Amino acid sequence: MVVFFYFCPCMEILNECPACGTNAKIEYLTCKDFGYSGSYFTINQCVSCKLLFTSPRPDASEIGAYYKSDDYVSHTNKSKGIINRLYPIVRNIAVNQKVRLIKKLIPKNSSVADLGAGNGYFVKAVLKAGFPIKGYEPSLEAIKLAKETFNTDLHPIETFYTTGNEEFNCITLWHVLEHIHTLQETLNHIKITLKKNGILIIAVPNPASKDAEYYKEFWAAYDVPRHLYHFTPEALEKLIGSFNFTLLDKKPMLFDSTYVSLLSERYKAKSSKAVQIYNALYRGIHSNMHAAIYTGNYSSLIYIFRKNS
Ligand SMILES: [Zn+2]
């Protein structure tokens, strides 16, 4: 196999760990960008905090080009193939789970901010549940789509960084933190704009899950170079803890293991479609069961943190 690395001046090399600043790292895995460019990217691991991070990575001005795939369904709402057909069904179940969680964690009428609001589906559901929520989104195309599809107003992500001290009771990032170039700046502003004892909800894929271990470089949730970081529970809890937050709870996203396994099977392309679906169902259920019985390392986890007063 010929491995080549896409390289241009717009590529950013991280000499230091973006979480803890340590300059010692090891090469962890080389993954292909199956979603868009077909290029290969290296995932490094910090020897200190164990964070996995993509480096070199496209810089913030260049990364937009890597989101142009039709597979990026959270933005495009397209319905082609089994994965994209299943997506709206799973999305509906998942959004209900998210809204129930919000209702449980904060009193009604508490203010919420959602970072990386995508097509606005979650923002609309939270508004309907009776919470004032502001959704922030980097893609102008997604902001337009949210208005057209769900009649939901989203704000450009830059405006989040101008929000005042202690403005929100709860901030949510659903599969978003792994996309943010300005990791430290964003977490710092989240700390500033969240009220005392405010709730921070972060959902990210888990590279310590059984499905990640099985699929290795084909694991779809590595999703390089769009995913800049790959957070194990250990690395994420350490990072968020360093911003003076306490972990309250972790919850599984049970559908993610099968969804990610379906994509991973497609990337491996070793078997017929029917076999791929069978394998993905098996791997998805196996990953969830292994996490439930032994490790808690589900394919994706929702972390609930509270800002210390
Ligand atoms: Zn580190």
Short characterization:
The chain has 309 residues and is α/β, with parallel strands linked by helices. Helix content is 36%, strand content 23%. It is globular, with a radius of gyration of 19 Å.
How is this structure best described in words?
The protein is an alpha/beta fold. It has one domain (11-307): Vaccinia Virus protein VP39 (Rossmann fold). The chain is 36% helix and 23% strand. The protein contains 9 helices and 13 strands. It has helices spanning 73-76, 81-105, 121-128, 140-150, 183-193, 210-215, 233-241, 256-268, 273-295, and strands at 11-12, 25-32, 40-46, 52-54, 57-58, 112-115, 133-137, 154-156, 168-174, 194-205, 229-230, 245-252, 300-307. A 7-stranded mixed sheet has the order 8-7-6-9-10-13-12, with helices on both faces. A 4-stranded antiparallel sheet has the order 2-3-4-11, with no helix packed on it. A hairpin with a 5-residue loop joins strand 3 and strand 4 (52-54). Helix 2 (81-105) packs parallel to helix 3 (121-128) and helix 8 packs across helix 9. The longest helix has 25 residues, at 81-105. The protein is globular, with a radius of gyration of 19 Å. It starts with 10 loop residues before the first strand and ends with a strand. The model has no long low-confidence stretch (mean pLDDT 93). It binds zinc ion. Zinc ion binds next to loops.
